[in-house]
Hints:
The chain is of the alpha/beta class.
Amino acid sequence: MPAKRVLVIDDEKNLCTVIKACLENIGRWQVLIALSGGEGLTLAETEHPDAILLDVMMPDIDGMALFHKLQANLATHKIPVILLTAKVQSVDLNEFSQLGVAGVISKPFDPLRLSELVAKTLGW
């Protein structure tokens, strides 16, 4: 069985490096990185990852707007999306759960447990 492929969309380059290392070394998954929402949308359409980790707050297009674009696109609407966010107030979490995202992982997170959290959220 081929390794799962995860697309990480986050504008923080250093954080992406940490996430990639954790998911590849601990989870044994292939990781694609997009440092902007536009790049993430293009990679999601062309690479068809098994899941997307999506930052909520980004400068070019925020995570919520990008999530709606992914859901409206026939090529990407079935890809499960996990939000990565520092916005973990109960009102934010309620809003996220209404959207139909696969889950939410709060920042900061324990890098050593990240692949476990992703796997548990997605039932892998």
